[in-house]
Design brief:
The protein contains eleven helices and five strands; from the N terminus they run H-H-H-H-H-H-H-H-H-E-H-E-E-H-E-E. Strands 1-2-3-5-4 form a five-stranded mixed sheet.
Length: about 400
């Protein structure tokens, strides 16, 4: 059945106030028509059959098996139809019971069976009226057929409205769930951004300041004459600065992105290229799960240990560039290359997608980490950021960061 519950069977699903009112009206209509047929029957047998039909109808309304099983409901509807046909043979007043029967058949039977059943019921009503000696006139045919048409239009129309209402309800639920997921993603992204900012601030200010204090204390220690009483104080100060510098670096490592917590930058970039990795992997975007471009990662040169802000910047730029490839480029292949040179480290992300005009790119309206944000991150570390692309020519994103002294 297309409806959540028939008018007779509230146990199949909770009834709305409108359905509850319709069910009550159907009970009253059936009771009134059967009472009319019993009172106006020409014989005692007709009155008895009207009472039997009413008893069958009442039984179907309250038996648990009929409420819980569609097969039992069909059997009950067949018994009700047989008793009505028998009553129809004895009294023409039974003709009017056909109208509530239309609604029952449309509610309890599948469409492929309910429409033929309604048609046969209308034909039986017409033949009974004629068989009892009534004169042929257009009303004999129009009445039962018009009642059947009204019942079909009412029930099928309600079913269509119910399906549309259910579709909208599911859509609203999906929108609410999506909004919650987006809010959670925004909170997570904000947390990661704050962690990165704090790590960068600690590294660029506190850690660098403590390192400078160590160098100055070491120089002061060398400038002291042998046996100076200040040597011990300077040594303890330098040791305290060293311990605090180690603590600051531990904070920076703790605040770095999770992808860098258990491995090097190269390992994090290699994991990024695996199928189905997070929001930035090849499983994201319009391709669907498990699809998307084939991504390859390679390292050029001799890897060296980079400062945490460098690793964070290169990883985030690679994630954003690959996300753009997956979501917008419709590419079949992409390649990420990390190159270590004497004085710089370079990251290249190249794809064979649709490409675009770099001069036409505008900042993302949703605040996403787009090309301007990637450029800003690279330039904040003294690096350069370039984009080479053209329609149907693919895209190449390159970022180069100068290696700090001592790396």
């Amino acid at each position: 059945m297309d409806l959540p519950a028939s008018l007779l069977h509230p146990a199949r699903a909770p009834l709305t106030p409108a359905l509850r009112a319709l069910r009550l009206c159907l009970h009253l209509l059936m009771a009134g028509l059967l009472a009319l047929a019993a009172l106006r029957a020409d014989s005692a047998a007709g009155t008895v059959l009207a009472l039997v039909t009413g008893a069958v109808y009442a039984a179907g309304s309250y038996l648990p098996s009929v409420r819980e099983s569609q097969r039992a409901a069909a059997v009950w509807l067949g018994a009700l139809g047989v008793s009505w046909l028998a009553m129809l043979c004895l009294t023409p007043e039974a003709l009017w019971v056909a109208f509530p029967l239309y609604f029952l058949q449309l509610h309890l039977l599948p469409v492929r069976w309910s429409l033929p059943a309604v048609t046969l019921t209308a034909v039986a009503a017409i033949l009974s009226y004629v068989g009892h000696g009534a004169a042929l006139n257009p009303g004999v045919f129009i009445g039962p057929l018009l009642g059947a048409a009204v019942a079909v239009a009412t029930v099928l129309g309600y079913q269509a409205l119910y399906r549309e209402s259910e579709r909208r309800r599911r859509l609203i639920e999906e929108l609410i769930a999506t909004r919650a997921e987006l809010a959670a993603a925004e909170r997570h992204a904000g947390t990661l951004a704050e962690r990165e900012r704090l790590a960068r601030e600690i590294h660029d200010t506190l850690a660098q300041g403590l390192s400078s204090i160590q160098l100055l204390l070491r120089a002061a220690e060398r400038a002291l004459p042998p046996g100076s009483p200040a040597a011990g104080h300077i040594d303890r100060a330098r040791q305290a600065a060293q311990d605090n510098l180690a603590e600051a670096r531990r904070f920076v490592r703790a605040l770095s992105p999770p992808d860098l917590e258990h491995g090097s930058l190269a390992a994090a970039l290699e994991r990024l290229c695996e199928p189905g990795v997070g929001d930035y992997g090849p499983a994201a975007g319009p391709y669907g799960p498990g699809a998307g471009p084939r991504v390859r990662f390679s390292v050029s040169g001799t890897p060296v240990e980079l400062p945490t802000p460098y690793e964070v910047a290169l990883l985030r730029i690679a994630q954003s560039a690959l996300a753009n490839t997956v979501r917008h480029a419709a590419a079949s292949r992409a390649e990420i290359t990390l190159s270590f040179m004497d004085a710089s480290v370079t990251l290249d992300v190249v794809d064979d997608g649709t490409g675009f005009e770099p001069g036409s790119v505008r900042p993302s309206s949703d605040g996403g980490f787009g090309l301007p944000a990637m450029r800003s991150r690279a330039e904040s570390l003294g690096g350069t950021f370039t984009v080479e692309s053209a329609p149907d020519q693919g895209t190449a994103v390159a970022v180069s960061l100068p290696l700090p002294a001592g790396v």
